[in-house]
Amino acid sequence: MIFSSVTFLFLFLPIILALVLLAGKRLRNHVLLAASLLFYAWGEGGYCLLLIGSVLVNFFLARRLEGAAGPGRKWLLSLGILLNLAPLFVFKYARFVVESLNAIPGVSLFAGLQHNSLHLPVGISFFTFQALSYLVDVYRQTVPAERRLVNCGLYIAMFPQLLAGPIVRYHDLASQLVRRSVSREGLAAGAERFVLGLGKKVLLADPLGVQADRIFLLPAADLSTPEAWLGALCYTLQLYYDFSGYSDMAIGLGRMFGFVLPENFNYPYISRSIREFWRRWHMSLSAWLRDYLYIPLGGNRKGTWRTLVNLLLVFLVCGLWHGANWTFVLWGAWHGLFLVLERLVPVRSQSKLLQAGGWLYATLVVMLGWVLFRSPDLASALHYLGVMAGGGADAAGLIAAELAQDARFRTELIAAVIFAAPVYVTVRSFLDRAAASAGSVVGGAAAAFARGGFRLFLFGVVAYFSVISIAARAYHPFLYFQF
């Protein structure tokens, strides 16, 4: 079940909202946990037992860890890390490791595994990292172990952010698991955020994704240079609107149920460096890697060269976290390389020209990296990048020529480019300031009416066209479900 499906929007969500409101404060978490397990089992079937196992293992291990002393604490933590990572390795990385080893001449290990890969449980990378952060924080004594199984289960398995984040720390939700209010204001704000995320997904990400797929799937001999750049642009925008749309929906759903979830995106495509990009893109993963990998490795406390090595290691892990393929490893190394270069050659300037150059540089690096991310193997990625560099036909190509005449596609592409910048936030902030600084009662009322009218109009338009699009379009799952 996905958020942009008719089943979720018009059956699952209304029923769960009603049950949560009827349950009252004492049973609210029980209802949400049951709904979350049902939500996961709906799409993953028996793999729901894996999620339940993660909840039980981390709940009881954290309790033991909190009460342990001496060397036993490290052993318990090591056991917890092993038990959390073992399923992730088996389902996500075992085949990749075996195939990589078998590529070495004279090595032949578990050949059958190459042809019969296990189904990857949706969201396993997200709930595994979330559970690991809880266990490590209990070990570090920065949070107490949760005393109630239902609260621990809801923290790990809460359905709004279960499948694709944001990756939430336990200390961000601990008090909310015990005390929170489900209010009309929260429901309204959550619904607004959810609908805007839904619009990102179905009105921008999905149609751009259709064209990106058409271009990336072209036979190598038919791909032209203009088409390659157009495909890379479409995928760059698709990935942002798909993932940030999911995050918006998750945050909106959380708000409806009384939770305040952390932000995950902050307009990453306005970044003027790769360092800034990673402060704006998938912020919950960036923070997780910083706090649980980069800093424990020594961070920037052990000299320049150790800092650079740590950065490269962290981004190799970041690449592998996204997928078991050498393209992801290379994508992580690509970002790590530019972060190292930016450390070695820091550029800070107030010059508008240099800032524009920084944006162009960061955008180009990110877009070329997404080609690696999207490609099925290194050979395909290198060929596609070669065509982008001028190795393809100079003519536009059949798809590019067709899309150039497609008014709907041009509208979607232009809208996607415009709203990748903080246009909505700027307009909303302007209206908020106008309402707050109005010099008279009449002026204040007029400004407040304009602010409310703008938000209501946008909500209505996006909701209307999103529902029409969902009814008319085929199934398009979120891209990050595969990671």
Main features:
single chain, 483 residues, mainly alpha
Short description:
The chain has 483 residues and is mostly helical.
Description of the structure:
With 483 residues, this protein is an all-alpha fold. Among the domains are: 175 residues, no CATH class; 160 residues, no CATH class. The protein contains 19 helices and no strands. α2 crosses α5, α9 crosses α15 and α18 runs antiparallel to α19. The longest helix is centred in the first third of the chain and has 39 residues. The protein is globular.
- Which stretches are poorly predicted, pLDDT < 50 over at least 5 residues? none
Helix and strand content put the structural class at mainly alpha
Broad shape: globular
Q: What Rg do the Cα atoms give?
A: 24 Å
User: Helical content, roughly?
Assistant: over 70%
H/E series, N to C? HHHHHHHHHHHHHHHHHHH
The tally of beta strands, per DSSP, is 0
For the sheet with most strands, the description reads: none
Helix count, DSSP H or I runs of 4 or more residues = 19
Separation, N- and C-terminal Cα atoms: 17 Å
How much of the sequence is in beta strands? Answer: under 5%
Determine the mean pLDDT.
89
List the helices and strands and how they pair.
Elements: H1 6-44, H2 48-67, H3 71-102, H4 124-140, H5 149-157, H6 159-162, H7 170-178, H8 184-216, H9 225-256, H10 274-280, H11 283-294, H12 304-322, H13 326-344, H14 352-374, H15 378-391, H16 398-404, H17 407-419, H18 423-437, H19 441-472
